[in-house]
Amino acid sequence: MDASILDSSQKISGNQVTLTPAKVTKLVEGIAKQQIKEDGYPYILSDWDEPTSETHIDEGNHQIAKHIAQTTIETAKDDLDIINDLGNQVGGNDSAAATLNPVPNQMNIHYAVRDFKDSQQGHDMTSKE
């Protein structure tokens, strides 16, 4: 992974909640858009309320996503809890990961952090936080 991406992206914290309600809302909306694209229906929204549109994120669906984000943040102890909760809401399996993982990446939110520079290899080493 390119170290400059890691330096400029938001890191997922395992110690505290750093994701804002606006970012978590965008995560939820991104997941809903993925589901609409792949399955023709925003299942993540329908678990909380009846979607006001099945084809796009309109104001009603945005409000559902905001509610999901706020509730998810209130019950989370850190960013990993938020990501894991969203993953569980979309099934918690490999197909859920395929739906969830692209969304944080598109928002420049990453799990990896730069730990050290490998002087022998001349490049940065990354690991999972």
Overview in brief:
The protein is α+β, with helices and mostly antiparallel strands.
Q: Could you explain the architecture of this structure?
A:
The longest helix is centred in the first third of the chain and has 19 residues, at about 20-40. This protein is an alpha+beta fold. The chain has one domain (about 15-110). The radius of gyration is 16 Å and the shape is globular. The strands form two sheets. The protein has a two-stranded parallel sheet. About 55% of the residues lie in helices and about 15% in strands. It has helices spanning about 5-10, 20-40, 45, 60-75, 80-90, 95-100, 100-105, and strands spanning about 10, 110, 110-120, 125-129. It is built from seven helices and four strands; from the N terminus they run αβααααααβββ.
Key features of this structure:
about 130 residues; alpha+beta; two-stranded parallel sheet; two-stranded antiparallel sheet; about 15% strand; globular; disordered N terminus; disordered C terminus
Q: Residue-averaged pLDDT, rounded?
A: 82
Total helical elements: 7
- N-to-C series of helices and strands: HEHHHHHHEEE
Summing up helix and strand content along with how strands pair, one would put the structural category as alpha+beta
Strand order of the largest sheet: 1-2
Keywords: Plasmid
How is the secondary structure organized here?
Layout: H1 3-8, E1 10-11, H2 21-39, H3 43-46, H4 59-75, H5 79-89, H6 94-100, H7 102-106, E2 109-110, E3 112-118, E4 123-128
